[in-house]
């Protein structure tokens, strides 16, 4: 499945779309649109996909997206009805007119729009200030919405509490064939990384030979296909270890590792996560197979993988 183009319609007499979502879970497709987007997750947890980057999200996740950057939020695990809520602001880059945004006083906002092509995560006190403005924005009239949006953009542009999400994607032209190929490949990966992925199949989606695809993929992402797939799977495994009581072998299957032994799984985990095992995963690991898992850790230590445990008292 390729990423879908989303056609947005604004309210009559408004250049800004404000949407409140209350859903059983976030299950929207990996998609893109010419409008910029500010998304505030009011409730929910899961995975955020922006460009080629995958991150966990939780309550009060706040992200500014530039035009045409593919994205989606996916809830993981079982959730009760209405447990996913979000507020989404969408607007064209020229929402106030080209002449207005070209004023020298708005130079910071113009630079922000360029930076937003890679996606921007907003953190700290800036996030709290913006959330307060968003709460007031939903019930405001058209002029107040416009003014509050400019205030929000100015806060983001002036803040050092922001993080660029995927600078590599910003280098792809949103209308180029390469960008379209990128969209198709990552949409397929997001939908199928929990299953076995055939190099022949994904190369065909990119309309390349397997050899050419491997070269193309490494040039675009700076990583191999195997590394990206393992990152997607390990990201999901981390969340399941932290949020569920499922045994390790069940999590392996659910994340797409198949009947993998503990040693390769831990080795992959260490490689991608700075050689530190999260404290929250230890109780589940012990409950799953205390002897097998810790024997694996000891073998890894013997092989000079410096594993760090946050709960040394739990060691056998």
Structural account:
The structure is a single chain. With 316 residues, the protein is α+β, with helices and mostly antiparallel strands. The protein contains twelve helices and eleven strands. The protein has helices spanning 98-101, 107-115, 124-137, 142-158, 167-170, 177-192, 199-205, 210-221, 225-243, 248-255, 262-272, 281-302; strands at residues 4-5, 16-23, 31-32, 36-43, 46-50, 53-57, 62-65, 71-75, 84-91, 120-122, 162-164. Strands 2-9-4-7-10-11 form a six-stranded antiparallel β-sheet. Helix 11 (262-272) packs across helix 12. The protein is globular, with a radius of gyration of 22 Å. The model is unreliable at 1-9 and 274-316 (pLDDT under 50).
Q: Which strand order spans the largest sheet, edge to edge or round the barrel?
A: 2-9-4-7-10-11
Oligomer: single chain
Rg (C-alpha, Å): 22 Å
Please mark out the parts with pLDDT under 50 across 5 or more consecutive residues, or reply none: 1-9, 274-316
Determine the number of helices (DSSP H or I, runs of at least 4 residues): 12
Entry summary:
The chain is α+β, with helices and mostly antiparallel strands. The chain has helices at residues 98-101, 107-115, 124-137, 142-158, 167-170, 177-192, 199-205, 210-221, 225-243, 248-255, 262-272, 281-302, and strands spanning 4-5, 16-23, 31-32, 36-43, 46-50, 53-57, 62-65, 71-75, 84-91, 120-122, 162-164.
């Amino acid at each position: 499945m390729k990423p879908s183009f989303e056609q947005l319609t604004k309210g009559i007499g408004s250049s800004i779309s404000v949407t409140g979502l209350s859903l059983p879970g976030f299950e929207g497709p990996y998609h893109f649109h010419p409008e910029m987007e500010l998304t505030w997750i009011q409730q929910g947890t899961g995975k955020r996909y922006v460009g080629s980057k995958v991150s966990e999200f939780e309550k009060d996740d706040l992200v500014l997206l530039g035009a045409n950057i593919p994205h989606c939020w996916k809830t993981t695990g079982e959730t009760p009805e209405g447990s996913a809520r979000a507020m989404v602001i969408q607007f064209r880059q020229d929402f106030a007119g080209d002449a207005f945004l070209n004023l020298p006083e708005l130079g910071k906002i113009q630079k922000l729009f360029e930076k937003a092509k890679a996606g921007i995560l907003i953190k700290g006190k800036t996030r709290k200030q913006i959330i307060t403005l968003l709460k007031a924005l939903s019930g405001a009239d058209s002029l107040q919405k416009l003014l509050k949006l400019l205030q929000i953009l100015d806060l983001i542009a002036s803040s050092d509490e922001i993080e660029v999400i995927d600078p590599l994607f910003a280098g792809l032209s949103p209308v180029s064939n390469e960008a379209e190929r990128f969209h198709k490949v990552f949409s397929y990966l997001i939908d199928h990384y929990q299953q076995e992925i055939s190099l022949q199949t994904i190369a065909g989606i990119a309309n390349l030979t397997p050899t050419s695809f491997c070269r193309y993929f490494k040039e675009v992402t700076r990583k191999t296909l195997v590394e990206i797939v393992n990152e997607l799977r390990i990201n999901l495994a981390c969340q399941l270890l932290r949020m569920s009581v499922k045994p390790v072998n069940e999590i392996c299957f659910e994340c797409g590792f198949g009947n993998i032994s503990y040693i390769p799984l831990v080795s992959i985990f260490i490689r991608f996560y700075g050689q530190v095992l999260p404290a929250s995963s230890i109780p589940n690991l012990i409950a799953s197979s205390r002897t097998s898992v810790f024997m694996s850790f000891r073998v890894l230590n013997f092989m000079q993988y410096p594993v760090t445990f946050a709960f040394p008292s739990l060691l056998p």
